């Protein structure tokens, strides 16, 4: 089920399908770069809407023209689960529409 911690091998295998994402400190993370600060803030708002829809929430860090997404699953003891990858896949799908790279 989605909220079971994934093994290290499962995490590595799934990260191969998500270029730009990495495993760090028991989380999966990616930093996106955008054209402007406002574009970065719009990406944050869009991700926040998806997170409420999924009821799964990353830590989002807004920089000048960057957005850092960092997520694990609190209810699984702060381990990485399928829910984290489901969120990462949704973020990957919407990021290009904001000009994020
Ligand atoms: C009550 C609610 O379902 C929980 O607090 C959800 C909300 N968002 C969450 N987000 C994350 N990243 N991990 C969780 O365990 C989690 N739990």
Can you describe what's shown?
Helix 2 crosses helix 3. The protein is globular, with a radius of gyration of 13 Å. A hairpin with a 2-residue loop joins strand 1 and strand 2. It has helices spanning 8-15, 37-54, 82-94; strands at residues 22-24, 27-33, 59-62, 66-71. The protein is an alpha+beta fold and 101 residues long. The chain has a four-stranded antiparallel beta sheet with strand order 1-2-4-3. It has one domain (8-98): Gyrase A, domain 2. It has three helices and four strands. Bound molecules: ligand H2B. Keywords: Lyase. It is an enzyme of class 4 (lyase). Belongs to the pterin-4-alpha-carbinolamine dehydratase family. This is Putative pterin-4-alpha-carbinolamine dehydratase.
Q: C-alpha Rg, in Å?
A: 13 Å
Question: Biggest sheet: strands, sense, closure?
Answer: 4 strands, antiparallel
> Any idea how many domains?
1
Poorly predicted ranges (pLDDT <50, ≥5 residues)? Answer: none
Strand content: 15-25%
User: What is the number of strand segments?
Assistant: 4
CATH topology: Gyrase A, domain 2
Helix-strand string: HEEHEEH
Order of strands across the main sheet? 1-2-4-3
Distance between the termini: 31 Å
Bound compounds, each kind once, are: ligand H2B
Number of helix segments? 3
Reported CATH architecture: 2-Layer Sandwich
Mean of all residue-level pLDDT scores: 97
Task: Supply the CATH class.
Answer: Alpha Beta
- Residue share in helices? 25-40%
Secondary structural class: alpha+beta
Q: For this structure, what is the CATH homologous superfamily?
A: Transcriptional coactivator/pterin dehydratase
């Amino acid at each position: 089920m989605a909220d079971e911690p994934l093994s290290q091998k499962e995490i590595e295998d799934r990260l191969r399908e998500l270029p730009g994402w990495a495993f760090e400190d028991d989380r999966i993370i990616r930093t996106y770069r955008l054209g402007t600060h406002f574009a970065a803030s719009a990406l944050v708002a869009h991700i926040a809407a998806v997170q409420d829809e999924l009821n799964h929430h990353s830590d989002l860090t807004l920089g000048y023209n960057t957005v850092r997404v960092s997520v694990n699953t609190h209810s699984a003891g702060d381990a990485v689960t399928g829910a984290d990858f489901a969120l990462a896949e949704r973020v990957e799908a919407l990021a290009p529409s904001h000009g994020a790279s």
